[in-house]
Amino acid sequence: MAARNRLPPWHESIRLPNGRDVLIRPIRPEDAGPLKASFALLEPDEIRNRFLHSVQELSDDDVQRLTHPDPRTEFALVVAEPYPAGEALVGAVGRVFLLPGTRDAEFSILVSKYIRAMGLGRHLILRLVRWARGQKVERLYGDVFDQNTPMLTLCESLGFTRQQDHDTPGLFRIMLDLREQHPDDDTEDTPA
């Protein structure tokens, strides 16, 4: 049996095209320190693309909220070094949360420049889609700035549609109808 099969659920060890090994796994409380440290390495555009506005630093409340997702309504994965939680630098985060009283969920992804363009955005989206389907979500959406062409292109390749946000110039809402057949994580096992 391959070592990959012995990992806990939602854990996946992969080798990136640059030869670096990373672990994709659910976020843990112990990731608070590394998450805060990783945030300090992000460029302003990376932060703006994820949070849709400028953020100087993650507050302790933000870090607490991010590292303690409510398993009934949200799910978050990190791409980290293959070290124990609390010791591993976090290079990417994917998060999805259910919107109360609906069959909709919102997702967001942030991939650091250090591991960008290695297929991790696709990999994370596919895992978030899988979780959302398991929660009987009908529509998965996210908000993306028009200059974030890689994210828009990636989402469209996975079947997301985009709609201009009329209240915020330069912002698109991308939506995936999970009631329709779309690519899922069974078709993509490794980063592209």
UniProtKB/TrEMBL annotation:
Domain of life: Bacteria
Pfam family, any one: Acetyltransf_1
Keyword Transferase found: yes
An example Gene Ontology molecular-function term: acyltransferase activity, transferring groups other than amino-acyl groups
InterPro entries recorded: Acyl_CoA_acyltransferase (IPR016181), GNAT_dom (IPR000182)
Location of the N-acetyltransferase domain: 22-185
Alphabetical keyword list: Transferase
Name of this protein: Acetyltransferase (GNAT) family protein
